[in-house]
Every structure is written in structure tokens, then in C-alpha cells.
Design brief:
By secondary structure, this protein is mainly α. The chain has 11 helices and no strands.
């Protein structure tokens, strides 16, 4: 009897995970072509082939749904970056590290669209209970990947790898918004005179990270200043 109950429970858990997966996949697909503000929960439920009421059983708000999607995409990004950083043992240059970080985010359109609305939208209208597991996973991954960065870049002090990832987040968020302007702005920027205002996301992110890391490297190369000895008269 106990075995039968366990099997039934396992099947129910599989069904729940399957429906959750359907909802996240539907949300990701819709988000690629629909701005966050315009996307409705009813559309997600319809795309997933589930009732709207079922959607709210899994995700009580739109923010909770897309926070879960962000959680997944961040995890996949950390996995990609960790895999690259873990290959071999030799130290890297600042330029190589910058290229590796940029390559790890290129092509992940869901992540690039989610990051700019992360703090401004997704972390609103959710409870601490929903947010805490996300933040704890983020901290764990940030510390782990930060340690790998420090191994590749010996000029980083202990803890600076994780701190660098905070700056990566800020740069991705800001540059992504600049590189994806409103249609009226995009049309204006076709004017050759306004060309300096056009932002190429990968190019500018590579530039910013390379020079940030070179600055940290230069700082680490400076001679350590010692305080002058005081004369005792």
C-alpha cells in the first residue's frame, strides 16, 4: 500500500512539474516577441494549453512567473560561464575574460530581455517567501563563479570576483536598454549625424568589461605604499 501511494505521489509531482514547465516555456516564447508590460497572463495560459486558473495555482502574479523564468535563465548563464572558466589552468588576460563573459550572454535573448526589468519590475509584487530562494540561489552561484574568475584573474582580490559580477549585471542591464531603443528612437538614429548615439550591445559590453578589468589589473600592479616611520625624539 505504501509503495502504491508513493507511486501515485510521484506521478502527481511529475504532472505538476510538467505543467510548470509548460507555463515557463509558454511565457519565454511569448516574451521574445511581446514587451513585458503588454504580455497578459491569460495569453500565457492559452499558449500553454492550460486554464488561467491553473496558471495562478503555480504563479500567483506575473512577476512571480517571470522571476521563476529569470531564475532559470540566470542558472543556465552561470553554467555556461562556469564551464568556460573551468577549462585549463593558465591565468587569463583582462581582454580574454571580457570576451568570455560577453560570449556567455550572447544569444540568450530571454535573459537579455529579463535583466533590464529585474529590479525595476520583477522583484515587485512578490513576497519574501517567493524572493528568498531566488536570492539565496543567486548568492551561491555568484560566489562560486566569482571564485572561478579570481582563479583565472589572479589580480582580483578575494571576493572581487563576485563583486565583478555585480558590475556585469549593471552593465548588461544598462547597455541592453540603450541597444534596444523604442521604435521612434531607432528610426531617428538612422540619421548619420546621430550615429555616435547608436549602441552595439556586445561591442560596448566587451569594451567596458575589458577596461574595467585592465584598471583592476593596473591597480594590483602598483607598488604597495608603506606609512613613513615616525621619528621618536
Amino acid at each position: 500500500m505504501a509503495t502504491r501511494v508513493a507511486v501515485v505521489r510521484a506521478r502527481r509531482d511529475e504532472d505538476k512539474e510538467g505543467r510548470r514547465r509548460q507555463l515557463l516555456d509558454a511565457a519565454a516564447a511569448l516574451f521574445l516577441h511581446t514587451p513585458y508590460a503588454a504580455l497578459r497572463m491569460a495569453e500565457v495560459a492559452e499558449a500553454a494549453g492550460l486554464a488561467k486558473g491553473t496558471l495562478f495555482l503555480y504563479f500567483p502574479t506575473k512577476e512571480a512567473l517571470f522571476l521563476a523564468l529569470l531564475d532559470e535563465r540566470l542558472g543556465a548563464w552561470f553554467d555556461r560561464l562556469d564551464a568556460v572558466l573551468a577549462r585549463g589552468e593558465a591565468p587569463w588576460t583582462a581582454a580574454r575574460a571580457a570576451r568570455a563573459v560577453v560570449a556567455s550572454v550572447q544569444g540568450d535573448e530571454s535573459l537579455l530581455r529579463l535583466v533590464p526589468v529585474w529590479q525595476t519590475v520583477l522583484e515587485h509584487n512578490v513576497t519574501q517567501g517567493q524572493l528568498r530562494p531566488f536570492k539565496e540561489r543567486l548568492l551561491e552561484r555568484q560566489l562560486r563563479t566569482g571564485a572561478l574568475l579570481e582563479r583565472r584573474l589572479p589580480f582580483l582580490a578575494a571576493g572581487e570576483g563576485a563583486r565583478l559580477l555585480l558590475h556585469v549585471h549593471a552593465l548588461v542591464s544598462g547597455l541592453r536598454q540603450l541597444a534596444d531603443p523604442a521604435p521612434v528612437v531607432r528610426e531617428l538614429l538612422e540619421d548619420p549625424r546621430l550615429a555616435p548615439l547608436r549602441v552595439g550591445f556586445s561591442r560596448e559590453l566587451t569594451f567596458a568589461l575589458t577596461h574595467l578589468l585592465r584598471g583592476l589589473h593596473a591597480r594590483a600592479s602598483l607598488p604597495v605604499r608603506t606609512a613613513p616611520e615616525r621619528s621618536h625624539v
